[in-house]
Amino acid sequence: MDLFGTYMLNLSRVVLIALAIAILVRCLRSMLREHYDPEVWGYIRVGKEKLPIKHWENIIGRSKAADIRIDDTGVRRVHAVLVRDDKGAWRIQDVFGRGKLWVNRGYVCSASAELRDGDVINLNGVCMRLQDLPLEKREDLEKKRIGVGKNLSPALTLFELTVFQLFLLLQHALSAKPNALPMIALGFGTLIVLEWSCYNAMRIIGRLGYEVETLAFFLSTIGMSVAASSTPNDLYKQVLLLIASVALFLFHGWWLRDLRRSARMRIPVALFALLLLAVNVGFSEAVLGAKNWLEIGGYSFQPSELVKVAFVYVGSSTLDRLYRSRNLISFIAFSAICVVALALIGDFGTALVFFVTFLTISYMRSGSIGTVLLAISAAGLAGFLAVSVKPYIAQRFSSWGHVWEDVYDKGYQQTRAMSAAASGGLIGKGAGSGWLKGIFAANTDMVFAMTCEELGLILALCMVFAVLLLAFFAVRSARQGRSAFYAIAACATMSMMLVQMGLNIFGSLDILPFTGVTFPFVSRGGSSLLASWMMMAYLKGADNRREASFAVRPVNKLRSAQPPAKVNQHNEGAKKA
């Protein structure tokens, strides 16, 4: 490399760090510091008291945790669930079906009853009236709320990401072989076209928030750099899979906006996931002790990555189904089958990811610490049996913390990973200039160390911070969530990604046993990329900022989506009540 090339490399390394920090700071300010005004979808009138309805799914009861609290001894702690769909129609249901719910003097048993403006709800003798919010009033409230991107332009953040990608491409141009450069340029060019096309598509459908997608593209950019460094000749596969991933993200987001449809498809999705695992157990071949890859037509993929999307989908539930014990029991059975199947194929790292996600979903659905502790105890016993039965797993545990004692056998990968990460320093050697890429699984299981070597510790930590930022955003959105389905799905998604990230980083650095799981968006591999992008739709659905979520129609489309007015057949009964 000549003097000019060295100068450009040094300049690009500093600029990359500055741009990464700027992108993350702008996303942080927009996602976590923006003011949230409470949403009001209607009111419940109890005597002279007027209680606001702030969610799509609301618990009505005496409990302090209830969304609509009725402090009367005749009302149970959790009595009924009031649900609104995206077209504005309301329904109410007795949670446990104990026969203490009437609508306009009509008895409501286990099924739900439709509600309209002015209808009277009777909870065991306590009467209240629904006051729906007129469409004109709803539009006025939407316009008064502080919108996303009012202070920070998402287009400017995306422009910074584009410049980041161009400088990263410059580093590869200085280190790559001439015959590989066209494919590398195609990969980064595809990223730029995709992110701006997705941005414009969101604007067309009236979505203003773009921080979730920006962070996903930021991580995918580092993943593209990893692929360009390690396997530049196969980069066209990564390009095609990236296009498919973004397309599936948009499709999944559109699918999730209909909560009723999502609830109906939970069983078919669960059966499809179990079928994938059954095929994996029966027909895959073992690679280094694990049978987690299937090959079809010359292309290999990991079914367990796609099952992750289905696992979150099946585990999430709308509030009107959340308290039915048979639904929780069926999810526990589904989770057990998934974990056992993963244990049979030897993919214990992914099994651990599924188990932690199961704990998150179980706690959010039941609120019982005892249930979680019981599950952890059972998992500890199962883990002990697995270590006893599977010798290669016991070997990984025996080498944990002792990798430097056998650098040519048990500690071969981790010692190389730590040496490469240390050699990169704070700003790295430059994209494509590292040597760790030649070690087996460097671009998947040890991708954090590879990033440290080539792009530097600071940029690798920015990569970690991007995932943490998405996790904090999921928790914050869940607190204000319109639906339990979106809240559970978002938190389950980020718990899954956090565990994956932790196992990937700490395993390669010998802080935890080496389990061989991927880093979301960054590790090379189509299955992991597809799953990561599809699960971003859960996070996007939980975003409750104005004009940001997939789940809420834009204000200018609310009127066209409003269901036609119907004559309330129960008005006379309501007046008498």
Describe, in plain words, how this protein is organized in 3D.
With 577 residues, this protein is α+β, with helices and mostly antiparallel strands. It has two domains: 43-144, Tumour Suppressor Smad4 (Sandwich), CATH 2.60.200; 154-555, no CATH class. 59% of the residues lie in helices and 9% in strands. It has a six-stranded antiparallel sheet with strand order 2-1-11-10-7-8, with no helix packed on it. It has a five-stranded mixed sheet with strand order 4-3-5-6-9, with no helix packed on it. Strand 12 (294-296) and strand 13 (299-301) form a beta hairpin. The longest helix has 30 residues, at 3-32.
In short:
By secondary structure, this protein is of the alpha+beta class.
Instruction: Specify Rg, calculated over alpha carbons.
Output: 26 Å
Q: Please outline the major beta sheet.
A: 6 strands, antiparallel
Can you list the strand order of the major beta sheet? 2-1-11-10-7-8
β-strand amount: 5-15%
Oligomer: single chain
Tally of contiguous helical segments: 21
What is the domain tally?
2
Helix content: 55-70%
Which residue ranges are poorly predicted, with pLDDT under 50 across at least 5 consecutive positions? 145-149, 384-389, 563-577
**Overall geometry:** globular
Number of strands: 13
Question: Mean pLDDT, as a whole number?
Answer: 80
SS-derived structural category: alpha+beta
Give the termini separation: 86 Å
